[in-house]
Amino acid sequence: MKSNIQIGTSGYQYKHWKGDFYPKDLAVKDRFEFYARHFDTVEINNTFYKMADASTFDEWKNSAPKDFCYAIKYSRFGTHRKKLKDPEGHVNYFLDRATHLETLLGPVLVQLPPNWKKNIERLKEFLQVTPKSIRWAIEIRDPDWLSEELYELLREHNAALVLHDMIPDHPRVITADWTYMRFHGKNYSGNYSKKHLNEIADEVRGYVDDGLDVFVYFNNDLEGHAVRNALSLKENLGV
């Protein structure tokens, strides 16, 4: 497979993974090192709730292998409070910190609010100020957005429509030369069956055959299902 496939979990610092994924005697400070032995990417979610200081991004960069990839979730200040209004200020604030990751900075995940109806003009203004040197992934939570108008805008900016399972029968529309997949489970729990994981693997192979880079993150962290599902998918795809 010539394209890049990166598979990981949404977050890694979960207490309930102790004794499951993480050895019981493993210190909290050593969890990332252990995680990075098994995965080459992670989706950082806590930046959504509170933006980390630049020094924290420096620590993340220095603690990771040189080929590691951090997918960073965009601040909810920009998405949920501002609803993408006045984007230059919160985009610059976010990137002033996130770019401390340098080559380890992967996609930026922009999760739009649930129950926010389609506002293409607002998203357009946001994407116009985002640097094209960074990959931007847009996760839609209100089905009203899912339209050709949205897809055309994302294609103009090579931004990926996040393919996820919180919206039933979410369209599998590719809008960039890469794609971003999230698996939330049911209320962030539940184990994906072997059959379902095989179907996901086939979908990923199809994107790879089309020359796309593929980023996959499991968010069903309860009971450690995310780790096991991600490891199973890695094994299936041989990555």
From TrEMBL:
<dbReference type="InterPro" id="IPR002763">
    <property type="entry name" value="DUF72"/>
</dbReference>
<dbReference type="InterPro" id="IPR036520">
    <property type="entry name" value="UPF0759_sf"/>
</dbReference>
<dbReference type="Pfam" id="PF01904">
    <property type="entry name" value="DUF72"/>
</dbReference>
<protein>
    <submittedName>
        <fullName>DUF72 domain-containing protein</fullName>
    </submittedName>
</protein>
